[in-house]
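Data availability (excerpt). All sequences and predicted token strings are deposited with the supplementary files. A representative entry, arginyltransferase, is shown inline so that the format can be inspected without opening the archive.
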Amino acid sequence: MIRARGGMAGRRFSYYATTTRLSPQFYEGLVNRGWRRSGTLVYKPDQRASCCPQYTIRLDSHALHISKDQRQAVNRFNRHVLGDDYIKEAAKLYPKSRDQAKERNTGFDLLERIHESEKANIKTPPEPSHAFVVTLEPDSYTDEKYVVFENYQRIVHKEPPGKISKGGFKNFLCSSPLPRSQVVIDGKERRLGSYHQCYRLDGKLVAVGVLDLLPNCVSAVYFMYHESIHQFQPGKLGALREIALAKEDGYRWWYAGFYIHSCVKMRYKGDYNPQYILDPESYDWDLLDSEVKNKLDKSKFLSLSAERDGKNTENATEEENKTSEGPSKDSNEPVDSMDEDESGLDSNSDSDEPPVSDPERALFLRSMPGILNKEQLLSQIDLDHIKIRVRKYEAETSDLVSWYEDDIENANSIKGIIAELAAAVGPELAQEIRLREADYMST
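Structure token line:
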């Protein structure tokens, strides 16, 4: 990883690093500490300093309470693919028993319904109106995928053509640092790494879900679709299919990306229930229910663990407590979204008040939530024995010539850079870090 300072404008701040390779196991640990990735960039927002705090949320796929409009979206699309003529003829040729018909009319099996209109699952004759195929493919670039991306950014997000490029698509949604592999977990084979879930209708690619498959979760990175299927609510269909993947392949959890309560366009992520929100201080998971949402209406920064301990979770001015209309969009990169853009890493603010987190101080000396302070850092992490690679040789940080001379509080020194990263990833992950020479020499 390469340590890099997050963009600080007004009071928006993220600590971020870059990586050339990231194991799915390690990245899952980061996600459960409030990190996300965008291409090879991994970043952790400062919720206390942000005007629009980003919270990690997740859903247990086995406990999904599907809503009426979500059921209708699936049924409407299935009917479009199959066609009325096929449905009538198939009912005669392949009649259901009374119990089967009753179960279908009174219940909703997500796995059954989500796969119902796929070409491989359709009984013929007769032939359906359309051929629908969903595949899980490597996250490599193809012109076919770029056509969908370009259309989605231009039509749905109103981006000017000059700001949409193949290079941007490749950098942020293809060639992930997460390697693909197949492993056996709990006796079941599971795919790990970054994939593109591709939706084709009559042979044409109409939607792509960019997914990170981690040991215990399906993490949604981005979802894009062609304008030709907009009427079928593809955002809902994509989310439900990802939840189904988490359930049937044993990942269990579905991570929808960051939830920004103050942004109306982002609240749709909370429509899939029950979801849990990650506490930015303790990293506990709390149910994202109406009570928590009411608290977020009143205070943008929320730590239920700190609240339970009687601590003041707001280290902000009255101006910061006002509800924001949503994140600004100074960054045009597609960062962590299913159906609506989220804020970029850097954002401009016209506020002239001082930031809550001072970017000139070492990370562990600030008030950024969930970051080890200096005392915790020195007592919980052995900074002298973090693994590094110098050219072809394996070594440890204490082998560096300047290691014992450097000041840990100097954020521009080698020791300060590594100490900040360790404070941000926490004790368990810090011991798994492998730094190359170029990583800690970069500033």
